[in-house]
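Case study 2.
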Amino acid sequence: MTQRNPVVVVILSALTLSIYAFYWLFVTTEELKKSTGDERLDPMVDLLLSVVTFGLWGVYAAWRNAGIVHGELRERGVEHEDRSLLIAGFGAATYFVGFSWLVGMALLQEDFNALARTETASALGAGDAPLPVTY
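Prediction:
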């Protein structure tokens, strides 16, 4: 997984009118697939279904990915609170109150960052080693 600044992810998504959000969904799902070895994850399907369902599939994909990250972190011995329902709730609330999906996106990116830290720490054999941040 690649560590990204959640605030920058949200700003880029807002500035590009969600185009970056679709890119982010594709890239992070691909990274999660590689990180976990879960062959059921298909970033292209997630991207296409998110576009044709006007983001509804993206709410599902965010919920699913958050649950996978939670399970993976627990398997790696990291204490972690499952925020998948919270993330899905922010995504679903968007259809009623506006841009709440951006909050869910930031929360999910924080979870991805936690997973990225475990990968770097195990690769280096160290505790919370800093990671380069990319977008």
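Helices lie at 6-15, 19-36, 43-52, 56-75, 84-97, 101-124.
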